[in-house]
Specification:
Elements (H helix, E strand, L loop, with lengths): L2 E10 L2 E11 L3 E6 L6 H8 L7 E6 L2 E2 L4 H4 L3 E4 L11 H12 L4 H11 L15 H13 L5 E5 L7 H16 L4 E6 L2 H7 L2 E6 L2 E7 L4 E7 L12 E3 L2 E5 L5 H12 L3 E8 H9 L7
Parallel strand pairs: 3-8, 3-9, 6-7, 7-8
Antiparallel strand pairs: 1-2, 1-4, 4-5, 9-10, 11-13, 11-14, 12-13
Helix pairs in contact: 3-4, 4-5, 5-6
Length: about 290
Amino acid sequence: MELIADSLTRRYGNVVALTGLSLQIDTPGVFVILGPNGAGKTTFMKIITGLVKPSKGSLKINGLDSWHDHSKVSEGIGALIEQPEFHPYMTGREILEFHSRVKGISGIGTEVERVAGITEISGYLDRKSGGYSRGMKQRLALASALLGDPMLLVLDEPTFGLDPLGMIMIRKIIRKLSTEMGKTVILSTHLIFEASELADRVLIFSKGRLVYDNPSDHTRKLEVEVAGDASPLAKIDATIQGNTAYFQLDDPARINGILSGILKTGLAVTSIREIDGLEEIYVKVQGGKQEE
């Protein structure tokens, strides 16, 4: 699967939702779009799925234009863009069978069981969807997106509004789709910890622009502030910025050694906390503050 965005711009009247976006995705994996509300995440996803026409530029998937060749492109895409809404008196099975017919899928019964197995809802298929929890509805929506076995999945904030267990389940399924089934997953989120956990590559959007695009290599750090100069901590592999030292936590067991080394310096510690490396990057590229 190859996706190429070339100078994508999308305007809504005088509002520029996306501007000059260019990128290429040509390997399986989880590609996380991170950014605040209004950053252009959903607009980009709607362009991928052919729901929105670019004002300028183009987006091609396997050489086909997402807008002009929408019917062909959509055959290889599974999407979850808006929050799922299902008829409350239909069972999960009936909903998936209906969506299968709309997509022209043959062997509907087998396909429904397949996607239900992936999303772990097999035991709930014959219950009316009106009785599903929010997390269960999200997994049903994800199952629907998987109908037809698309190689590209586009998921807009798939864990939004879920409780912790629901979020864990969705993330587990996403990892399985990528690592075990070789699919390309493009998902958006505004949760930094979620991006850190899931992403093979992180794309950070800000005010309609792509401001950061790199593989996910964001180990957590220990931030230690001391009274006075922190430079003595450089001897125990810290990066020093004034009275603050940063230690890479690529191995969680390293914390005890770091703390022991700090005590040996005799420095007075005023603050200590664990931070995410991606969090530091995010704040920097967003100009030091979250957008409203």
